[in-house]
């Protein structure tokens, strides 16, 4: 198998590979994959079908994937959002649902077992989760969107799935301040540095690769440190931060274990003794 193909973005094993890699890799069988929808609120995606394997990234409720294989309780999938490949529990994906009409537009919200805030919560969803809305109603002045199975979500926590929720991805990123840091996380319940960049940009109608090394090598254009302004990205080995203005940044920090604000110079000094100077600066 050629090592040049990144296993995070290319689905191939000796016994099975995705069809688009035919002629590039050797495998006993090639498949297009079957469409499916993520059916759990937040699903860890792992490099191996092993619950003890660390999380590479996460899939959110309502996102779509292609299922390449189901075996022994695991599904081998490829995300339609960013092309990431990995394993999720078989019951975390389901047959394709009705197309999403809305997307969760706040960092976190509840789905209720009916259109009333006093009803029990069925589960919680993160910003970026996708829903098919069947109707709407109002209870004591609060408008709810109605979902399949008698569930409901607060309407003003949602936005149309077809449009971004804003054009300033930095402002979206700062809505996650104090969210816990989580390696591999990309949700309002826990997020890592590159997950914050990706999710905030996604909600602003822009696309970004998932991991910081992918972002550092191909997101936007290279700039000089003296040119940094709001929205630019600062990279260290294995880390990325978003400039909030010329002197401060916001990032999912393993130091505070939260999404936090920090002065650029303070961050460079603090990170430097462990990981060295920034490796680059980019304008997405």
Protein described:
- This protein is mainly β.
- Helices cover 13% and strands 37% of the residues.
- It contains four helices and 25 strands.
- The chain has a six-stranded antiparallel beta sheet, with helices on both faces. It has a five-stranded antiparallel beta sheet with strand order 8-7-6-3-9, with no helix packed on it. Strands 12-11-16-15-14 form a five-stranded antiparallel beta sheet, with no helix packed on it.
- Strand 7 (74-79) and strand 8 form a beta hairpin.
- The chain starts with 16 loop residues before the first strand and ends with a strand.
What characteristics describe this protein?
SH3 type barrels, 284 residues, 25 strands, endopeptidase fold (from Nostoc punctiforme), 5-stranded antiparallel beta sheet, single chain, mainly beta, 4 helices, 6-stranded antiparallel beta sheet
Could you tell me the CATH topology label of the largest domain: endopeptidase fold (from Nostoc punctiforme)
Shape: globular
Task: Output the strand order for the largest sheet.
Answer: 20-25-21-22-23-24
CATH superfamily label of the largest domain: endopeptidase domain like (from Nostoc punctiforme)
The Cα radius of gyration reads 20 Å
**In CATH, what is the class of the largest domain?**
Alpha Beta
Structural class by secondary-structure content: mainly beta
Helix content: 10-25%
So how many helices? 4
Beta-strand content bin? 35-45%
Mean pLDDT: 97
Q: Give the number of DSSP strands.
A: 25
Main beta sheet:
6 strands, antiparallel
CATH architecture of the largest domain: Alpha-Beta Complex
Low-confidence stretches: none
Task: State the order of secondary-structure elements, H for helix, E for strand.
Answer: EEEEEEEEEEEEEEEEEHEEHHEEEEEHE
Measured distance between first and last alpha carbons? 33 Å
**Number of separate structural domains:** 3
């Amino acid at each position: 198998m050629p090592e040049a193909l990144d296993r995070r973005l290319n689905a191939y094993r000796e016994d099975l590979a995705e069809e688009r890699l035919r002629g590039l890799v050797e495998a006993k069988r090639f498949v297009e994959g079957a469409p499916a929808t993520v059916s759990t609120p937040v699903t860890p995606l792992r490099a191996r079908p092993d619950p003890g394997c660390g999380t590479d990234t996460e899939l959110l409720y309502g996102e779509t994937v292609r299922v390449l294989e189901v075996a022994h309780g695991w599904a081998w999938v490829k995300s339609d959002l960013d092309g990431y490949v990995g394993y999720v529990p078989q019951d975390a994906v389901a047959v394709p649902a009705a197309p999403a009409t809305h997307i969760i537009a706040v960092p976190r919200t509840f789905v209720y077992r009916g259109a009333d805030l006093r009803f029990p919560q069925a589960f919680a969803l993160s910003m970026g989760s996708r829903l098919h809305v069947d109707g709407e109603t109002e209870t004591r002045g609060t408008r709810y969107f109605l979902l399949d199975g008698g569930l409901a979500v607060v309407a003003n926590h949602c936005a149309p799935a077809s449009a971004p929720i804003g054009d300033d991805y930095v402002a979206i990123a700062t809505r996650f301040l104090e969210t816990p840091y989580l390696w591999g996380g990309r949700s309002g319940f826990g997020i890592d540095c590159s997950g914050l960049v990706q999710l905030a940009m996604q909600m602003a109608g822009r696309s970004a690769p998932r991991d910081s090394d992918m972002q550092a090598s191909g997101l936007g254009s290279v700039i000089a440190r003296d040119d940094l302004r709001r929205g630019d990205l600062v990279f260290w080995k294995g880390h990325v931060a978003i400039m909030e203005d010329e002197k401060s940044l916001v990032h999912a920090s393993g130091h505070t274990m939260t999404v936090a604000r920090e002065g650029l110079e303070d961050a460079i000094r603090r990170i430097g003794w462990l990981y060295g100077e920034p490796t680059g600066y980019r304008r997405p």
